[in-house]
Every structure is written in C-alpha cells, then in structure tokens.
Amino acid sequence: MPKAFSNKAGFKGFGLTPPQILVLGFAVLILAGTLLLMLPVASAAGQSLGFVDALFTATSATCVTGLVVVDTGTYFSLFGKTVILVLIQIGGLGFMTMATLFALVFKKRISLRDRLILQEAMNQSTMEGIVRLIRRVLLYSLIIEGVGAILLTARWAADMALPKALYFGIFHAVSMFNNAGFDIFGDFRSLTQYTGDPVVNITVMLLIVTGGLGFLVLTELAEYPRKRRFSLHSKVVLSMTSVLIVLGAAVFFIFEYTNKQTLGPLDLGDKLWAALFQSVTPRTAGANTVDIAGMRQASQMFMIILMFIGASPGSTGGGIKTTTFTLMVGAVIAMLRGREDIVLFRYRVAQERIFKALTITLLALLFIVSITMVLSTLEDRSFLMILFETTSAFATVGLSMGLTPELSDLGKVLICLAMFAGRLGLLTLAYALGPKQGKPLYKYPEGKMIIG
Predict the structure, then answer these.
(1) Alpha carbon distances (Å) from 233 to 26, 238, 318, 357, 380
(2) Residues linked to residue 347 through DSSP beta bridges, in sequence order
(3) Contact partners, residue 182, CB within 8 Å, separation at least 6
(4) Is the dihedral of CA 343, 345, 347, 352 positive or negative?
(5) Can you give the pLDDT at residue 10?
(6) What average pLDDT values come out for the chain (452 residues) when binned by 10 residues?
(7) Is 283 in contact with 205 (CB distance < 8 Å)?
C-alpha cells in the first residue's frame, strides 16, 4: 500500500481517499451490471432475473471470478452475455484503467488525483511512469486477447458457424486473459469437451498465465531482448509461477491418475494435458477440463492451496499473490537457518514488505475461515465443499464443486462479499473504511516474550 494517502491529498472535492474511490467505483459498476442483468432482454427466455442472482452474476463478472448461479451459456441472451463480457473486461483491467483509456483517446489531462488512484489500483509504490504503464496495460491486453481470440476462433470454426465461432473466441479470450473463468458452452460444462485438445489447452493456458503474471512483468518480458535483465519482482513472479505450475501438474497427475471420474479413463497424452490445465487454472482462472467435484479430496485440498496463493500483483488475478507466498516461505527458511534477513536473488527484502505479506496472509486466512464457518451453519453441505467455494470466491478463481447454484440467498450474498473483498484486497478495504494514521512520534521500550 503506497504511503501517501490522506483525505487532504488532492481529494478536497470528493473528500475520499484513493482506496475509497476504488471501492465505491467497483460497487457502482456492480450495481449497474445488476440492473442491466435484471432486464428481461438479458435472458434468453425474456424473463427478469431476480435481484440476488443478478447481483451475484454482476459481482462475479466485475470481480473476474466466474462462479455462477445460473448457466451463462443457456440462461442469458446475447445482450446478457455481452453485459457480462463488458463487466469482465472493465473489472479485469480496472475501471480507472478504462477511464484513463477514454481520457487518452480524447486527449484529456490525467490529473494528480487520477494518478494517485491509478497508483493504488495498479498496486504501485510510486506514481512515476504510471500513465505509461496504463498505456502498456491497454496495448498488451488488446494484443494478447486479440491473438487468443483469433486462435480460438480458428479452432472452433471447425465445430460451429464462423460468426458463432468468432463470438465464442472473443468471449473466452477476454474471459480467460482476465482470469474470469466464465464460459458460454452451456450446461455448466466449461471446457470439459476439450480435455485433450492441444489448441484449446495451449491457447487458454497461455491466456491465463499471461493475465496472471502482472503487467509489470509483461512489460519486462517485452523489453528483455533489449535490456537483458529482470527486476527482483519479475524474477520472483516468474520463478514461483513456474514452480507452482510444474508442482501442481505433478500432484494432480499422481493423485488423479487412477480416478475413474477424472484422469482414469483418459490416455496418457490426455492425462498430461488435463493435469497441466488443472494446475494452471486454480491460479484464479476458473475454467476446467475435468470434473472438479469428482476429484479426490486430496486433490481438492491441494487446489484450495493453489487458489489461496493465486496470481501475481498488478495482474487480473486474485489470491494472496505469488510474491506474498514467496516472502512467507523465505521467512520460514531464514528462521530455520538462523538468519535475520530474507534474501532473494541476492537482494535483501525490506522488513516493511515482510510485515505487509504477513498481514495479507493472516487477514486472508481469517476472512476465509470466518465466511466458511458462517456458511457451514447456513448450508447443508460438507465442510470441504464450503471451504473450496469460499476460497474460490475470495481468490476470484471461479472453480466450483457444484455448491454455488444451490446456495441460499444469504449464502449468495456472503459469497458476493468474498468476491468483492478478494478483488479489491482486504488491505484496500481496510484503508477505505479507516485510513491509516500517521507514524507515532515516539517508541515504546522493547519487550521480550517466548515464541514457539
């Protein structure tokens, strides 16, 4: 969280801090999406969707989650699907990023207030180069989504009419790059009919991974041939992402190899594709090529861990983020080795970053456990299923064991709260509800206590 936010810093006209503006902006966007999805024209049958279900769908799309209470492919009309698509795009890139796009198109000046909000939205520690970063965000998003849409359209043109294939290609490219996980194939089946399809698997996985790396990392990847170096942030993100994908694929391949409901009936090649895809998708994407509910409990628990870790900072994904998890692992290793500092790639990590990582991790754990405990008293389902659904919502993943459509109205509202908190971040919400105070002018004497 950048240091500079107070109610006096350029926000006299609104009386709001950047975190408060972000929270309010996302809330307004969700409300607008809810009202649009409640219109009879948004459903294929011409019926009005109830408020709670419309709110749930709008929240899931805006927070790029992918959990659904009605089947997206069969329930919604072209208008309704387009509303969801627009919410995914705005929610994934951030409403301030889209507002900046219009300002740049119409050659409007980006004010100091707007730059502060963008700094908070992109999770940057400085305003330097923030508008340049936004330009790159928009450019990279357009290129990656465009290439993904072309590849998927070309593949699906063999199975359906070209106009339909084009719409499917665009929808799923936007959904997967923004790590939303929405699909329009119908019957809640996601991509299960393409378990062993190389084109669909590779294209979708690349969209998910590039969307989850973060735009700062994408920028450094694009500039690497010229600069020949990566920052510490990019090194951590790329290395941890690679480790989690490879480890996840190995775990799912081993645990599910003989499971008749998932990998069991598949040949070796399809088993490898399915294991790799299920390792990538918990990184907040939400698509699946095998039945998640049919997995063994060990695999489901491991998937919860992957969802909790999530994607990387400044990306379209959620979770506590790969960098936070890396710092937690680094802290454990440093303590076991008797070292005071966490050293990554020959860089010492500042103590402030370690405290922030610890705060994010503990807040996330407490939030998920609290929501899970409340839901377990409301819904007559297994604890693992409820924990899975709650983690999926908070980490804005969208994977489901089938619980979401059966939730009570209060349960749906709680999951909406989890998605909203996960998309904005608990620290942002905390600062929005109560801006942090200035540094104290004195220090208390140091005390000692026994740990462990």
Answers:
(1) 27, 9, 17, 14, 43
(2) 344
(3) 60, 61, 66, 68, 72, 84, 88, 171, 175, 286, 398
(4) negative
(5) 42
(6) 41 60 86 96 94 96 93 95 94 65 54 55 54 77 94 95 95 94 91 94 95 87 89 92 96 96 94 96 90 95 95 86 94 89 89 89 95 95 95 94 93 95 82 64 74 68
(7) no
Q: Cα–Cα distance between 30 and 234 in angstroms, integer?
A: 32
The predicted pLDDT at position 21 comes to: 76
Q: Which residues contact 319 (CB under 8 A, 6 or more apart)?
A: 283, 284, 307, 308, 309, 310, 311, 395, 396, 397, 422
**Tell me, what's the pLDDT at 23?**
83
- Determine the pLDDT at residue 9: 41
Q: Which two tokens stand for residue 434?
A: 């109560």
The answer to whether 315 and 213 are in contact (CB under 8 A) is yes
> What is the DSSP-derived secondary structure letter of residue 43?
B
Q: Kindly tell me the burial class for residue 28, based on how many C-beta atoms sit within 10 Å of its own C-beta (0-12, 13-18, 19 or more).
A: exposed
Whole-number pLDDT of residue 149 = 97
How confident is the model at residue 1, as a pLDDT?
40
DSSP label of 40? G
Quote the CA–CA distance of 210 and 427 in Å, as a whole number.
25
Distances (CA, A) of 308 to 179, 244, 252, 404: 14, 12, 17, 18
Helices H / strands E in the chain, number of each: 18, 2
pLDDT for res 39: 96
The token pair at 234 is 């990019």
Region for 181 from its dihedrals, namely left if φ exceeds 0, alpha if ψ lies in -120 to 50, beta otherwise: left
> Which 3 state secondary structure label does DSSP give 215?
helix
DSSP conformation class of 293: T
Contact 357, 327 (CB under 8 A): yes
pLDDT value, residue 5: 41
CB atoms < 10 A from the CB of 258, how many? 10
**pTM recorded for the entire structure:** 0.88
Q: Are 186 and 71 in contact (CB under 8 A)?
A: yes
Mention every residue, 6+ apart, whose C-beta is less than 8 A from residue 341. Answer: 334, 348, 349
**Rounded (5°) CA angle 132-137-141:** 150
Alpha carbon distance 403, 293 (integer Å): 10
Chain-centroid distance, C-alpha 128? 25
Backbone φ and ψ for 43, nearest 5 degrees, come out as -105, 150
Distance CA 251, CA 245 (A): 10
* 313 burial type by CB count under 10 A (0-12 exposed, 13-18 middle, 19+ buried): buried
